[in-house]
């Protein structure tokens, strides 16, 4: 990405700009197809700045909260995150957009399509904030980057990137994800790019020719090809660990600006990352999101019912494969079955649901998020949490009507309902109390580097060992000592 040029006169910033091209509803895809013929649909690198002071007439310069949205690096936009709750505190909120899917992450590991374009967009947005945020009453020396799901992975990528400098951000909040999760990095980017390219009729075997062909293809055609590729991968039960390509970070071997030069797992293991105060956490039922994918794309097609004893091993094996865990001997499956199921539940999908939710949640999010917290806590204050409050609103299904034989619970992304107003409904009185608490914890951390700086109802201490202490956020908050307790619901 390149910095935007200056302009003369006034800029109309009263309307949201278009979201970055993405595979969403059929209506939006038809619109994208039409616009691709007449305009540059990739002109989408905009950010929203929200402040409770009058720009240019600042009484004080406030801490900045820089939000990176999730959505598997495939979907999402800055429009989706309203500032109403967070601006009750003395912070400036910045919500960014970045290129998504293959337009932001496809990599042929060559100079033309090197990969990590979406991450470089995020870095450029941080540089913009560093240069201009004082005009909006923000303090460029007090910037907290925070993100959820793939946005959380992006936060940890920024901490590990050699291109990120200490003047750009000073604190981090990592919600339900990490660059240490197996799904975060594409370990076979060229193979995946070639498979996707073939679906756009770029059939050469030479990287340079494939690159030239892709650059001539329309963004619409590339996104459609990528979506088709992902459906095949998911139906094969291979959703993570380097098999889900075209929309994840890569360890670059080409390109002028290499965002990642080594596996983030190595960076955090060896201490080769930007160390800072960090908040890290998950939601209680992270696994329902992934179990929903497994049920929709795999189990329904292979008759997940409650009547077949031969399914004793099938459900566990599918969950492990989807999580990217190789279990050639069956030993891991046996350990997981002993940990997460009763013997009389085996083969009964309904009875196995809580255990399957646990397996998906632990293997795909909770364990890698805890690992992120552990690595950071060696060097700096790290505040660990789990969001366990069950309200009447949920992001389970992301607005779509889902017909799964299990509830979402405190699902993946439900924590966002209490940080950003949710369009699907209003919070109850009790839920508003939870939202107020979370907003204060998040903004206090951005302002002071601690979520509970003053003596209040409770004190949230930083981690002192590999398992805690940690905060369990609920109608009645509690400090707990062993985060492994959250591995089972």
From TrEMBL:
Keyword S-adenosyl-L-methionine: no
Residue ranges annotated for the Carboxylesterase type B domain, each copy included: 1-482
UniProt keyword list: Glycoprotein
Keyword field contains Glycoprotein: yes
Annotated coiled-coil segments of the chain: none
Pfam family, one: COesterase
InterPro entries: AB_hydrolase_fold, CarbesteraseB
The protein, known as: COesterase domain-containing protein
Species annotation: Rhodnius prolixus (Triatomid bug)
Taxonomy of the source species: Eukaryota, Metazoa, Ecdysozoa, Arthropoda, Hexapoda
């Amino acid at each position: 990405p390149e910095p935007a040029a200056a302009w003369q006169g006034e800029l109309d910033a009263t309307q949201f700009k278009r979201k970055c091209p993405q595979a969403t509803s059929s209506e939006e895809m038809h619109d994208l197809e039409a616009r691709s013929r007449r305009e540059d649909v990739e002109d989408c690198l905009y950010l929203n700045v929200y402040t409770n002071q009058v720009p240019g007439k600042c009484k004080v310069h406030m801490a900045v909260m820089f939000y990176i949205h999730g959505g598997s690096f495939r979907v999402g936009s800055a429009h989706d995150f309203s500032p109403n709750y967070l601006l009750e505190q003395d912070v400036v909120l910045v919500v960014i957009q970045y290129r998504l899917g293959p337009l932001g992450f496809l990599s042929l590991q060559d100079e033309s399509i090197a990969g990590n374009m979406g991450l470089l967009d995020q870095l450029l947005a941080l540089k913009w904030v560093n240069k201009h945020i004082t005009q909006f009453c923000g303090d460029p020396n007090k910037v907290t980057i925070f993100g959820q799901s793939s946005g959380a992975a992006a936060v940890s990528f920024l901490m590990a990137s050699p291109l990120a400098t200490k003047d750009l951000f000073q604190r981090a909040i990592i919600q339900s994800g990490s660059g240490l999760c197996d799904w975060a990095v594409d370990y076979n980017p060229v193979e995946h790019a070639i498979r996707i390219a073939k679906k756009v009729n770029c059939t050469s075997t030479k990287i340079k020719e494939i690159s030239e062909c892709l650059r001539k293809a329309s963004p619409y055609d590339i996104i459609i090809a990528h979506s088709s590729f992902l459906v095949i991968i998911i139906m094969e039960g291979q959703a993570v660990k380097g098999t889900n390509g075209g929309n994840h970070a890569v360890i670059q071997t080409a390109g002028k600006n290499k965002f990642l030069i080594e596996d983030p797992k190595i960076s955090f293991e060896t201490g080769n990352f930007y160390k800072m105060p960090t908040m890290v956490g998950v939601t209680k039922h992270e696994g329902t999101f992934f179990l929903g994918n497994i049920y929709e794309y795999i189990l329904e097609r292979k008759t997940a019912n409650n009547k077949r004893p031969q399914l004793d091993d099938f459900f566990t094996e599918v969950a492990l494969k989807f999580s990217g865990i190789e279990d050639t001997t069956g030993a891991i499956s046996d350990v997981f079955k002993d940990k997460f199921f009763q013997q009389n539940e085996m083969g009964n999908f309904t009875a196995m649901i809580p255990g399957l939710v646990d397996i998906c949640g632990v293997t795909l999010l909770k364990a890698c998020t805890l690992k992120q917290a552990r690595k950071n806590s060696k060097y700096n204050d790290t505040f660990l949490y789990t969001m366990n409050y069950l309200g009447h609103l949920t992001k389970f299904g992301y607005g779509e009507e889902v017909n799964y034989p299990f509830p979402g619970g405190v699902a993946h992304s439900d924590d966002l309902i209490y940080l950003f107003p949710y369009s699907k409904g209003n919070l109850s009185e009790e839920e508003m109390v939870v939202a107020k608490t979370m907003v204060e914890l998040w903004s206090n951390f951005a302002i002071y580097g601690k979520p509970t700086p003053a003596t209040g109802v409770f004190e949230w201490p930083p981690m002192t060992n590999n398992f805690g202490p940690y905060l369990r956020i609920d109608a009645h908050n509690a400090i707990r000592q062993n985060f492994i307790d959250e591995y089972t619901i």
